[in-house]
Amino acid sequence: MEDSFLERMDSELAGWANPVQRLKGAIENNEFELYCQPILQFAGNERYPMAEVLVRLREEERALVPPGEFLPVFEHYRMMPYLDRWVVRHTVKRLAQGSRIPRFTVNLSGQTIEDLEFPRFVTGQLAANQLAGSRLLFEIDEADVLARPESVERFAAQMKSVGTPLLIDGFGCRAVSFTPVKTLGVQFVKVDGRITRRVMSNDSARSKLNAILRVGERLGFGVVAECVEEQDVLVRLKAMGVGYAQGFGIYQPHPIDALAE
Predict the structure, then answer these.
(1) Tens of pLDDT along 174-201?
(2) Angle between helices 19-28 and 80-96 (to 10 degrees)
(3) Per-residue pLDDT for 136 more than 80?
(4) Torsion angle, CA of 136/146/56/75, rounded to 10 degrees?
(5) Spatial separation of the C-alpha atoms in residues 65 and 32, rounded to whole Å
(6) N or C, where is the chain less crowded by C-beta within 10 Å?
(7) Which tens digits make up the pLDDT trace of 1-29?
(8) Maximum Cα–Cα distance for the chain, whole Å?
């Protein structure tokens, strides 16, 4: 499916002498919009202490294009560091303007993690907007954590110096390993949605989630359950001791300004 999409995009970009310049143009012309999806906290003073930042692409003849359609193109042309910079720049600006949601989580691609200049860019954006690093939380997919351990460790150390912690996304998708969690000192793990969706009906999913919760309590990281779509799942997660939950059954994604102001 991805190949056919890339073939279609290659055809659409065929009229451009340089497809990379076309993608850069989309960034430079701000052809994107930020959305976010709040993350629920079951206990505490803040009901929604953070929200995940999501990006949409505007097209003249179409509605907003979801990330599943354009991110593979950026990945294909190794343009993700440019897009991730755009997202960070505009997220930091939104936070600096004031936000009733105190923290935003930003997904980073493996390409960006390997970009040696990216930590300096983040530090510069925080300083220019007089924003504390703790207002951001970078989400890194578990697959990238396992595939790029040295790059992720280097990035984690650099972000720790400015107070910006990490979250491992898609946690538990594979055999659960807590070594990266301890090594990186992550603040949260986001449990893979396939575990969350099966927590009502599958003993293995419940056992895996319970193991994550036990280690989380011992090591001091928070546990976020993603892809929560049904009320009975939400109730079960709370009863099991999960601290945070996210999904369409809790809060639909909205334009970032609508939720931040």
Answers:
(1) 767 889 999 999 999 999 999 999 999 9
(2) 0
(3) yes
(4) 130
(5) 9
(6) N
(7) 445 445 555 555 444 446 678 788 889 99
(8) 57
Q: Minimal CA–CA distance to 218: which of 178, 257, 190?
A: 178
What is the per-residue pLDDT across 206-234, written as a single tens digit (0 to 9) for each?
999 999 999 999 999 999 999 999 999 99
Cα–Cα distances (Å) from 107 to 52, 87, 127, in that order, read: 8, 9, 21
In this structure, the number of other CB atoms found within 10 A of the CB of residue 18 comes to 10
Cα–Cα nearest to 82, from 64, 56, 109, 104: 109
Give DSSP secondary structure letters for the chain: -HHHHHHHHHHHTTTSS-HHHHHHHHHHTT-EEEEEEEEEESSSS-SS-EEEEEEEEEETTEEEEPHHHHHHHHHHTT-HHHHHHHHHHHHHHHHHT--SS-EEEEEE-HHHHT-TTHHHHHHHHHHHTT--GGGEEEEEEHHHHHH-HHHHHHHHHHHHTTT--EEEEEETSSS---HHHHHHT-SEEEE-HHHHHTTTT-HHHHHHHHHHHHHHHHHT-EEEE-----HHHHHHHHHHT--EE-STTT---EEHHHHH-
CA angle 119, 30, 139 (to 5 degrees): 35
Domains delineated in the chain: 33-56+84-260 (3.20.20.450)
**Looking at per-residue confidence, does 261 or 248 come out higher?**
248
- Residues 6+ positions from 158 with CB-CB distance below 8 Å: 119
